[in-house]
């Protein structure tokens, strides 16, 4: 009911009258706008109170956070000074959505009252009218910790008036007028050295001075942490077996020490050096830092808080695993995060993530949590890992219907019914849990990997319908029968070590299912180990850090190793086939030439075969989790095996045998992928670019003055380029390296020749309006082109584009075109402009089924022909005079 009242109120408020736009406001105008503003403040008050009411549903509040707020606020970037913590010493500004969410986060219940003191019309620097509202804000309620809150303070709203759009919108909400620059400086100064070193790395204020070196930002400069050497001089007395400082000589009562040692040494200490300079470069850099999308501080023990991340509103990925972080409250408003890893931290509560509902990959292993209610809001969740937590109830995951991977190993769960509807589940780990009944899994038809090791199950019958099952582990259970798994065509491995499966049953099963390997006792693992060459044993022992004669447990830790780097003398990768949990494998500089043993490593994320004799990547075709591959200086010619690997994001291939066609074919299948394979050519290309093109590329993708290999490749992988007319360019030759261009806007410039676009067969949008172009023949093969603008060019003949039948929008206004016959087959054409041309006949347009809009004024077309066209196409909107 409250939500309905909100909606009705907003309709009344924003459908109210507005006066016609005027150059100035009369007294009557002002009074009417003041009335509107009073209603707006009332609406704001009701909105905040709706959020502060614990009886209202989360999803209704979420509608306010994502949509309804925009009825009175200009956009999501409107800054609100935080007034929710009355003990806060310094002012902090937040995006409006973050402020609204914090009302729900900080309070159990709260009520806002706004008493308007005055509404004053004012003029801004652009000469535009806005209103400043002075009011007293009172809040009363209880915080989430149970503390009573009741206080009042002055607050101000600044409301912009747009008479043309008939809108009043809040653009600022504060107690103290916000200073964005000062806030950024305070933000930097308040963060720990560890965060400064991470966030500031790679951003240079001047040559050789990184932002990470800046300790404090001052009013007129900054301080740098510098290590300096200081002289250390001292003397010590040796008396018997004791060492005494010289200031204790009185304790010898006149006796001489055995020996006197004089020390003349230096020690290193960190000190602040003050640099006086303009703060403009620092402000620019801090703005860039606040826009970063990925933070990975995994394993950094100096990271103890996530507080500095509050300003990173564009953050998409955060990995703070294996740090000393204990509170995720600072990231509660970062609602663009899709990838979050808080494993092995001191976090005990994840409830503040309830509005982070775009999370797709969430890892929270080995932390002290038992409540995952918040997961029910993660509608897009694909991967969830809660290993070794105190979770016992997984009901919230029942809403996560897009889930493909779920790790509940080492939890306290017993009831699996919430998994019933997770039909996309691909990988499920229930190992070392009290689970005894797996009947709820019988509908999970997409399940490929199942781990129920160390559970209480005794019967595999519910799995007989899972035809896509590829691997199952039920070691250390009381399962005694393999027959429910018989004739599963995709099954390749069964782990049943220390189960009740005996040798006879295992042998019988393998005979009837020859493609399945049954690992049914530790002896098999020990036999594998005993057959390994000594150098492989030494390698695995060293990197798994086990004893020289591994115990049974250590052997299991070896085959579960996550990272492995082999030596240069290794010739055969076969032993790696047993390391099915490996994620990072480095075979670089070895003598390995065959990757076949890697076929079953479905957890592999990163593979390095740099400087090897590898030439065939076919064994990698099944590695769905592979993200990064290094094939530099190899004989690899084909990437065909990688075409279905949707997670792969980066391939390093300089010095390989790859051709551009091979790379383009893969990129068209996996658009998220970056293949770095032509760095030398790109450095030469970049070196030959004129400054105009460099500025154009820099405006689309920030890079160093001497771009890295990855930056160069990212530039030529750009899909969209919009050229500011202030960047004067005379040729498109600089685009020849760009194979993935889909949109090019280069209006009002000096382009004569479109030939460099002739091979841009992915191009969908092209605008060269206002250029001295007279020939569009180079566009004749761009069959995907949908939007073409050659307005005010010297084009006279449309024949070259006769076959571009996917064009929907075409603008040839201001050209010398006379004949529209080449357009007769444009069955998808919706919008055509022939303004100010020599066209006389519109007959070729009569049979275009999709044509909706035609601009045809200032042409040679007679009025009767236009009327005839309208008669034949009554739905056509024609602008003609």
Layout of helices and strands, plus pairs?
Layout: H1 2-14, H2 27-52, H3 58-66, E1 79-81, E2 93-95, H4 96-106, E3 107-123, E4 129-143, E5 148-162, E6 167-174, H5 180-190, H6 193-199, E7 204-206, E8 209-210, E9 214-217, E10 221-239, E11 242-245, E12 259-276, H7 280-289, E13 294-296, E14 317-319, E15 339-341, E16 361-363, E17 383-385, E18 405-407, E19 427-429, E20 449-451, E21 471-473, E22 493-495, H8 503-512, E23 517-519, H9 522-531, H10 534-544, H11 552-559, E24 563-565, E25 584-586, E26 606-608, E27 628-630, E28 650-652, H12 660-669, E29 674-676, H13 679-688, H14 691-700, H15 709-716, E30 720-722, E31 743-745, E32 765-767, E33 787-789, E34 809-811, E35 831-833, E36 853-855, H16 863-872, E37 877-879
Parallel strand pairs: 1-6, 13-14, 14-15, 15-16, 16-17, 17-18, 18-19, 19-20, 20-21, 21-22, 22-23, 24-25, 25-26, 26-27, 27-28, 28-29, 30-31, 31-32, 32-33, 33-34, 34-35, 35-36, 36-37
Antiparallel strand pairs: 1-2, 3-4, 4-5, 5-6, 7-8, 9-10, 10-11, 10-12
Helix pairs in contact: 1-2
Summed up:
By secondary structure, the chain is of the alpha/beta class.
CATH class category of the domain at 2-178: Alpha Beta
Counted by DSSP, the helix tally is: 16
Content of β-strand: 15-25%
State the CATH architecture of the domain at 2-178: Roll
| Helical content band | 10-25%
Q: What gyration radius follows from the Cα positions, in whole Å?
A: 35 Å
Structural class of the helix and strand makeup?
Answer: alpha/beta
Name the average pLDDT. Answer: 89
Q: How would you characterize the largest beta sheet?
A: 11 strands, parallel
Instruction: Kindly identify the CATH topology of the domain at 2-178.
Output: Nuclear Transport Factor 2, Chain: A
Uncertain residue ranges: 1-23
């Amino acid at each position: 009911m409250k939500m309905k009242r909100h909606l009705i109120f907003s309709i009344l408020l924003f459908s109210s009258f507005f006066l016609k736009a005027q150059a100035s406001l009369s007294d009557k105008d002002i009074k009417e706008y003041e009335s509107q503003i009073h209603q707006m403040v009332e609406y704001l008050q009701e909105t905040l109170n709706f959020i502060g009411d614990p009886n209202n549903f989360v999803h209704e509040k979420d509608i306010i956070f994502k949509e309804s707020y925009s009825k009175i606020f200009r956009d999501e970037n409107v800054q609100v000074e935080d007034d929710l913590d009355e003990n806060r010493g310094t002012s902090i500004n937040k995006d409006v959505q973050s402020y609204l969410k914090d009302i729900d986060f900080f309070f159990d219940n709260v009520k806002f009252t706004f008493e308007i003191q005055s509404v004053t019309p004012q003029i801004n620097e652009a000469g535009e009218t806005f209103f400043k509202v002075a009011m007293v804000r009172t809040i009363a309620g209880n915080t989430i910790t149970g503390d009573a809150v009741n206080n009042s303070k002055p607050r101000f709203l600044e409301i912009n008036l747009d008479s043309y759009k008939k809108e009043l919108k809040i653009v600022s909400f504060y107690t103290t007028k916000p200073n964005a620059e000062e806030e950024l400086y305070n933000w930097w100064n308040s963060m720990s050295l560890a965060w400064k070193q991470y966030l500031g790395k790679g951003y240079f204020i001047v040559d050789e001075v990184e932002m990470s070196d800046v300790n404090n930002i001052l009013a007129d400069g900054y301080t740098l942490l510098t290590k300096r050497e200081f002289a250390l001089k001292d003397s010590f007395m040796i008396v018997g077996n004791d060492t005494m400082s010289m200031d204790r000589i009185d304790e010898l009562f006149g006796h001489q020490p055995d020996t006197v040692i004089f020390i003349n040494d230096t020690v290193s200490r960190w000190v602040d050096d003050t640099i006086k300079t303009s703060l403009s470069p620092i402000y620019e850099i801090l703005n860039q830092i606040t826009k970063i999308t990925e933070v990975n501080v995994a394993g950094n023990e100096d990271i103890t808080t996530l507080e500095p991340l509050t300003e990173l509103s564009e953050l998409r990925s955060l990995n703070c695993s294996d740090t000393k972080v204990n509170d995720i409250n600072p990231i509660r408003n970062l609602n663009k995060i899709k990838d979050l890893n808080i494993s092995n931290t001191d976090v005990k509560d994840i409830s503040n993530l309830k509005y982070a509902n775009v999370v797709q990959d969430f890892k929270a292993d080995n932390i002290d949590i038992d409540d995952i209610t918040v997961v029910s809001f993660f509608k897009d969740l694909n991967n969830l890992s809660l290993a070794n937590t105190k979770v016992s109830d997984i009901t919230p995951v029942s809403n996560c219907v897009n889930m493909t991977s779920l790790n509940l190993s080492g939890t306290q769960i017993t009831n699996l019914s919430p998994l019933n509807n997770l039909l996309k589940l691909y990988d499920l780990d229930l190992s070392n849990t009290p689970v005894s009944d797996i009947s709820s899994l019988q509908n999970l038809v997409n399940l490929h990997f199942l781990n129920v090791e160390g559970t209480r199950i005794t019967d595999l019958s519910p799995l007989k319908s899972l035809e896509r099952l590829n691997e199952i582990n039920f070691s250390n259970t009381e399962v005694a029968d393999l027959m429910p798994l018989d004739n599963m065509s995709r099954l390749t491995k069964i782990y049943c070590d220390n189960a009740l499966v005996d040798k006879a049953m295992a042998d019988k099963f393998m005979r009837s299912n020859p493609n399945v390997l049954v690992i049914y006792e530790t002896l098999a693992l020990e036999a594998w180990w005993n057959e390994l060459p000594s150098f492989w044993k030494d390698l695995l022992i060293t990197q798994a850090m086990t004893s020289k004669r591994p115990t049974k447990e250590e052997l299991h830790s070896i085959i579960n190793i996550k990272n492995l780097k082999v030596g240069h003398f290794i010739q055969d990768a076969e032993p790696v086939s047993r390391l099915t949990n490996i994620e990072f494998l480095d075979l670089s500089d070895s003598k390995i030439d065959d990757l076949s043993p890697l076929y079953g490593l479905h957890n592999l994320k990163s593979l390095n075969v740099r400087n090897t004799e590898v030439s065939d990547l076919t064994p990698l075709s099944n590695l769905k989790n592979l993200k990064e591959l290094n094939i530099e200086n190899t004989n690899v010619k084909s990437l065909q095996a990688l075409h279905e690997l949707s997670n792969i994001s980066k391939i390093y291939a300089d010095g390989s045998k790859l051709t551009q066609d091979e790379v383009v074919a893969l990129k068209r299948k996996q658009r998220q992928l970056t293949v770095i394979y032509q760095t030398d050519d790109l450095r030469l290309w970049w070196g030959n670019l004129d400054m105009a093109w460099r500025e154009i590329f820099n405006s689309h993708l920030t890079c160093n003055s001497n771009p890295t290999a990855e930056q160069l490749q990212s530039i030529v992988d750009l899909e969209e380029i919009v050229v500011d007319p202030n960047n004067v360019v005379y040729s498109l030759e600089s685009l020849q390296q760009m194979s993935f261009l889909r949109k090019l806007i280069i209006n009002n410039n000096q382009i004569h020749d479109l030939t460099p676009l002739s091979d841009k067969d992915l191009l969908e949008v092209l605008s060269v309006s206002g250029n001295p172009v007279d020939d569009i023949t180079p566009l004749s093969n761009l069959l995907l082109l949908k939007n073409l603008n050659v307005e005010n060019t010297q084009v006279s003949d449309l024949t070259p584009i006769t076959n571009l039948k996917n064009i929907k929008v075409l603008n040839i206004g201001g050209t010398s075109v006379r004949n529209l016959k080449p357009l007769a087959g444009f069955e998808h054409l919706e919008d055509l402009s022939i303004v100010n041309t020599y066209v006389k006949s519109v007959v070729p347009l009569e049979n275009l089924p999709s044509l909706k809009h035609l601009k045809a004024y200032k042409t040679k077309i007679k009025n009767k022909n236009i009327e005839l066209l309208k008669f034949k196409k009554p739905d056509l909107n024609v602008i003609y005079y």
